[in-house]
Amino acid sequence: MIGPPLTCPLPDGAGFRVLLKDEDNSAIYCDSEKKPCPKHYECIQTIGQFSSEWNGVCCPRKEVSCSPDDGVELDIDGWLPRWYYDGKKCREFMWNPNLAHSPNTYVTKEHCESYCID
């Protein structure tokens, strides 16, 4: 298998880092019909991994992904150009996916603007 088996759509390439986790740092599983996620999270169905009790993982909703207070770190050792929403507009920064922990990270300015502003 390439990449982590459980991941969120954002940030592209590091979504596994923003899964909602419990106090033991384990992913919180959900079922889109029987066991919903907590407020500000949505159940994203997994591919190839599920059980009779769950079919997805809890990922941040738009209000979290576009929050300027979500902890976007402007990495001094980042090397990939990415965009984040600062509460007013989308700004470019250099991203280090090894340190990524915020879903407020977009590959293009257009994606950032269409998701957070439009």
Radius of gyration: 15 Å
Average predicted local confidence, pLDDT: 84
Taking pLDDT < 50 over at least 5 consecutive residues as the criterion, the unreliable ranges are none
Q: Specify the overall morphology.
A: globular
The computed structural class is alpha+beta
Q: Find the count of extended strands (DSSP E, 2+ residues).
A: 5
Order of helices and strands: EEEHEEH
Question: Main sheet: which strands, in order across?
Answer: 1-3-2
Protein name: BPTI/Kunitz inhibitor domain-containing protein
Pfam families: Kunitz_BPTI
GO molecular function, one term: serine-type endopeptidase inhibitor activity
How would you describe this protein?
The protein is an alpha+beta fold and about 120 residues long. It has 2 domains: about 15-65, no CATH class; about 65-115, Factor Xa Inhibitor, CATH 4.10.410.10. Helix content is about 10%, strand content about 20%. The protein has helices at about 60-65, 110-115; strands at about 30, 40-45, 55-60, 80-85, 90-95. It has a 3-stranded antiparallel β-sheet. It has a two-stranded antiparallel ribbon with strand order 4-5. β4 and β5 (about 90-95) form a beta hairpin. GO terms for molecular function: serine-type endopeptidase inhibitor activity. This is BPTI/Kunitz inhibitor domain-containing protein.
